[in-house]
From TrEMBL:
GO terms for cellular component: membrane. The keyword Repressor does not apply. The keyword Transmembrane helix applies. It comes from the Bacteria. This is Tellurite resistance protein TerC. Belongs to the TerC family. PANTHER family: MEMBRANE BOUND PREDICTED REDOX MODULATOR, THYLAKOID MEMBRANE PROTEIN TERC, CHLOROPLASTIC. InterPro entries: Integral_membrane_TerC (IPR005496), Integral_membrane_TerC_rswitch (IPR022369).
Length: 332
């Protein structure tokens, strides 16, 4: 793709306008959104992403649109995995439900800024050093194995990172929340509220998740514009998805295994592409590996969709059986 500065500017302006409108709505009336409200917003962002893909199809061709859809789906599924940790953070810090929207939105804004930096750095590395695919691929395979072993995190496994611990010790903090504010005044002193620590926790957690998701989408497409827009569309509806799924997250017990398969598949795909473009002297004498196949976008999309569908269906079936068993035992 040859994306002009004008297209980038229009895209960024539209994205900022939507986020500002979202922030204005939350700031005007902090509340816990209903299932209907969350469904409408999630549907709006999904339709927006689908329409964006149609525009890409008409202007740049089906291959580019396919890369966007596959990248968006990958990032969206990995973002759902983030929600498990967000639930734990909200519970750990006791954030009131009506203020969780603001926490999530600020965390998403921080994530967009940080991921933008990761994308720029990743694109620069890939354009200069094709062997970076070996590193990305190996890292994704390693992450996939760990995810399959550990499963989804629970509250007992959550540990505060270095930045959160430092913030607790170094910053003057109040004991209680003051609405959604990050500062408050007590006894004439200006203090930070626990809301600031929650913001730091959400932002740094998403930064850690970006270490997985950015290499994953570079395994789908190396076009920075597609990588960035796929991340934007995946993150923009994440806040409403958090409230929409609610307790359903606990029922997606096999999602981590499905995501492990997706990450492993993309990791292998990256390694194969690195072999096909190989120029490292200690691998095959610095020559391209002719037998390394190119995995087309349609196959990647099929594998990702199929894996997520199977993991979701299996999770819901298993949780339904467990629930029926618990009810039967309770009646005895």
């Amino acid at each position: 793709m040859n994306v002009s500065a004008l297209v980038w500017a229009v895209t960024l302006t539209a994205m900022i306008a939507v986020l500002l409108a979202d922030l204005f709505i939350i700031g005007r009336r902090p509340h816990e959104p209903s299932v209907r409200e969350s469904s409408l917003w999630v549907g709006f962002y999904v339709v927006l992403a689908l329409l964006f893909g149609v525009v890409l199809w008409l202007t740049a061709g089906p291959s580019v649109a396919g890369q966007f859809y596959t990248g968006w789906l990958t990032e969206y599924s990995l973002s759902v995995d983030n929600l498990f940790v967000f639930v734990i953070i909200m519970a750990r810090f006791g954030v009131p439900r009506q203020y969780q929207q603001k926490v999530l939105l600020v965390g998403i804004l921080l994530a967009l800024v940080m991921r933008g930096g990761f994308i720029a750095a990743g694109a620069a590395l890939i354009s200069q050093f094709s062997w970076v695919f070996y590193i990305f691929g190996a890292f994704l395979i390693y992450t996939a194995v760990n995810l399959a072993r550990q499963g989804e995190p629970d509250e007992d496994e959550f540990s505060e990172n270095v930045l959160i611990r430092w913030s607790r010790k170094a910053l003057p903090l109040s004991r209680d929340f003051d609405g959604a504010r990050m500062t408050t005044r007590e006894d004439g002193r200006r203090l930070f509220t626990p809301m600031l620590i929650v913001m730091i926790a959400i932002g740094t957690t998403d930064l850690i998740f970006a270490l997985d998701s950015i290499p994953a989408i570079f395994g789908i497409t190396q076009e920075p514009y597609l990588v960035f827009t796929a991340n934007v569309f995946a993150l923009m509806g994440l806040r409403q998805l958090y409230f929409l799924l609610g307790g359903l997250l606990d029922r997606l017990i096999y999602l981590s295994y499905g995501l492990a398969v997706v990450l492993g598949f993309i990791g292998v795909k990256l390694v194969l592409e690195a072999l096909a473009d190989n120029n490292l002297p200690f691998i095959n004498g610095g020559e391209h590996v002719g037998w390394a196949p190119h995995i087309p976008i349609w196959l990647s999309l099929t594998v990702i969709l199929g894996t997520l569908a199977v993991a979701t269906a299996a999770s819901l079936v298993k949780s339904s059986r467990d629930r029926r068993r618990e009810l039967a035992e309770a009646r005895r």
